[in-house]
Amino acid sequence: MYYKSPVYRSFYVLIVAALAALSVVCLLPMVHVLAVSVSGKSATAANLVTFWPIDFTWDAYVKTLSNDNFIRSLGNTVVRVLLGVSIGMLITITAAYPLSRDRRFFPRAGAYTWFFVITMLFNGGLVPGYILMQKLHLMNSIWALVLPMAVNAYTILLMLNFYRTLPKELEEAALIDGAGQWKALFLIYIPISLPAVTTLSLITIVYHWNAWFDGMIYMKEAKWPLATLMQSIIVQIDITKMGLNTSQMDNISDRTVKAAQILIGALPILLLYPFLQKFFVKGMVLGAVKE
User: Fold this and answer.
1) Rounded to whole angstroms, how far apart are CA atoms 189 and 173?
2) CATH topology for 68-243?
């Protein structure tokens, strides 16, 4: 067989080695940040830490988790993610399902689909968006972060195309059995589309978790999400946002605290991927229709 040939084995070994090297390259920066976050002040200040901590200490994590600014911003981000994902996916599913139906049930579905496509090509811009938030009295409100992305044309079109790939026999069987469109959606299509819903939910979670610019222009500092606070600390180098005074910096440096905050901020998303990975490899319509 061809897969037992020397050429195939050599190619297989080369691919595995390349992927292993790529994995190491992706992991090394995280290992370095972890080592810095648990190293002492003198070692980090002298830039001696590489991939192994020096003068091991948990002080940076203790100070970070006792920082009111950090905890408040983390809570704001969690609320934003919960609202953004729940509202966004509800709108995505309920919009994509009717648009994917047969033209006998929804003759003008194509026109509405192009309406969503146009919004992906053209948008009002930053200034009109800011004025809209002011006119709607949403400034300094969590809804200023959630509502602009509640109707996401990209996720709607992805879900629409997924529903179009499902066998029409599912809908026909449901309607023959007396189910309406709502019952067919919630009892048949949503359970079948769980892998797609999970994937789009993960995309939405990552967006809301990492978004920082809207928080900076729409929210006051007390209601900043975590990404906005981290941008202020790391990019703008505003260490006053760390909430630390000189007496608290005896054993740690500002670089150590930054590394600890980066890891804590990235940890929820890193932990989420292994639990959702199974949905990416599961068959999309496996067992949906039996002949």
Assistant:
1) 12
2) MetI-like fold (1.10.3720)
